[in-house]
Structure formats: C-alpha cells, structure tokens
Amino acid sequence: MRTKLWAWILSTLLLTAISGAAQSRQGPPQRVDGTVVPPDADENRERLARDMAKKASQERQALLKSDTDRLVRLAAELKDYVDKSNENVLSLDVVKKAEEIEKLAHSVKDKMKGPN
Fold first, then answer.
1. What confidence score (pLDDT) does residue 2 get?
2. Hey, which of 3, 17, 63, 115 has its CA 20 to 30 A from 34?
3. Domain positions in the chain
4. What is the pLDDT of residues 2-38, one digit of tens each?
C-alpha cells in the first residue's frame, strides 16, 4: 500500500513538472501566418502611431503657415489692383485674383479642420 502511495505521488509530481515545463517553453505568441509577435510589439506600434501623427501634424502646420503667407500676399496684390482701378473699370485680373484667394481660403479652412 505504501509503495502504491509513493508511486502515485511521484507520478503526480512528474506529470506536474512535465506540464509546467511544456507551458514555460511556449515562447512568444505567434500570428496565424506563423510569424512571431515580440512582446513589446504593441508598445512599438503605439509609439510609431504617435510619432506619425505628430509628424503629420507638424507637416500640416507648416503647410498652413505657407498657405496663409501666400493668402496675405494675394490679398495685398488684390488691394493694389483695386486701388489702381476706378468705378468704371473692373479688371479681369481683379476677378481672377479674388477667385484664387477664395480657393486658397477654402483650402486653408479645410486643412485647419484636420484629417477626417
């Protein structure tokens, strides 16, 4: 009876040790296609997404600055055209300049709203 008890205890311990070793050897998780996913992949992905968003925001800001500078230049040119004309003459250049300003102003407004 005593040997059976020892045999049962030893076999239970042996099975426990084997299953524990098998679980510890599983390694990093794998994707469906079999490639290994590093444990810090989520952190890297989040950091990369933040960096890309920051860079996109900086590029959008630089583009807004250049567009608004151009808008100011165009408005000054339009003012000069209007100052040179009189009430009887409406220059085609004035109309074209106003249309260009309008398009650029809409573009700046859309960029200020950000990506949708």
1. 64
2. 17
3. 1-28, 61-116
4. 676 666 776 676 667 666 555 555 555 556 666 666 6
CA distance 26 to 28: 7
- For residues 104 and 49, what is the distance between their CA atoms, to the nearest angstrom? 30
For residue 80, give the H/E element and its range. Answer: helix 41-84
Query: Closest by alpha carbon to 67, among 25, 34, 110?
Result: 110
| Amino acid code (one letter) for 21 | A
Residue 30's φ and ψ, nearest 5 degrees, are: -120, 150
Q: Choose among 7, 27, 10: nearest CA to 18.
A: 10
Q: For residue range 75-103, list pLDDT tens digits in order.
A: 999 888 888 887 777 778 888 899 999 99
